[in-house]
């Protein structure tokens, strides 16, 4: 069965699922337990924590990286999955507009934050596809643990304001 994650959503399931999403500056973390064939995937927009519950609409509980990670951890625990035995993968953090040397853009912040969260939880990162320009299409097949990632560069002629130039 196919599941499509929108920004701020997450999913935990077994081998019958394949999870898809589309990332720009957002980041997805996948967790996978090879023996149990249970996996989890997030799609978060911002690093850090939501300040108040009011900041997190109930239909988008994983908007912030720390909140999304906590949801993944809880979901895996509910399925009896020991985090130390999981494989972690990180994707996204792309630049949707030209990067400047002066500012650490949100995609870079998201990617760095995802790395630190996995490290804090003792989860071994086996693969990552972070940063660069444009957006990514992801497909996570929980049965195999495979994550297909295709990065699509921005169209030529798009300027930093997002308007197409002639």
Q: Could you walk me through the main structural features you see in this protein, from its secondary elements to its overall organization?
A:
- This protein has helices at residues 65-78, 106-120; strands at 2-4, 10-13, 18-23, 27-33, 38-42, 87-92, 124-130, 135-141, 146-152.
- The protein is of the alpha+beta class and 166 residues long.
- The protein has one domain: 60s Ribosomal Protein L30, Chain: A (2-Layer Sandwich), CATH 3.30.1330.200.
- Strands 2-5-4-6-7 form a five-stranded mixed β-sheet, with helices on one face.
- The termini are far apart.
- Residues 160-166 have low confidence and may be disordered.
- Its EC number is 3.5.1.44.
- It catalyses: L-glutaminyl-[protein] + H2O = L-glutamyl-[protein] + NH4(+).
Overall CATH architecture: 2-Layer Sandwich
CATH secondary-structure class: Alpha Beta
Predict the CATH topology. 60s Ribosomal Protein L30, Chain: A
Number of helices: 2
Catalytic activity: L-glutaminyl-[protein] + H2O = L-glutamyl-[protein] + NH4(+)
Pfam family, one: CheD
Family: Belongs to the CheD family.
Keywords: Chemotaxis, Hydrolase
């Amino acid at each position: 069965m196919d599941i499509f994650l929108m920004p701020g959503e997450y999913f935990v399931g077994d081998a019958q699922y394949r999870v898809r999403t589309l990332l720009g500056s957002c980041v997805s973390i996948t967790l996978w337990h090879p023996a149990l064939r249970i996996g989890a995937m997030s799609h978060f927009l911002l690093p850090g924590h939501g300040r108040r519950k009011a900041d997190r609409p109930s239909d988008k509980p994983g908007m912030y990286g720390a909140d999304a990670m906590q949801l993944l951890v809880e979901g895996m625990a509910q399925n009896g999955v020991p985090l130390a035995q999981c494989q972690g993968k990180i994707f996204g953090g792309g630049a949707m507009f030209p990067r400047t040397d002066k500012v650490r853009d949100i995609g870079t912040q998201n990617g760095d934050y995802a790395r630190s969260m996995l490290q804090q939880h003792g989860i071994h990162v086996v693969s990552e596809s972070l940063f660069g320009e444009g957006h990514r299409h992801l497909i996570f097949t929980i049965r195999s643990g495979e994550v297909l990632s295709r990065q699509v560069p921005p169209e030529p002629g798009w300027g930093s304001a997002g308007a197409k130039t002639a």
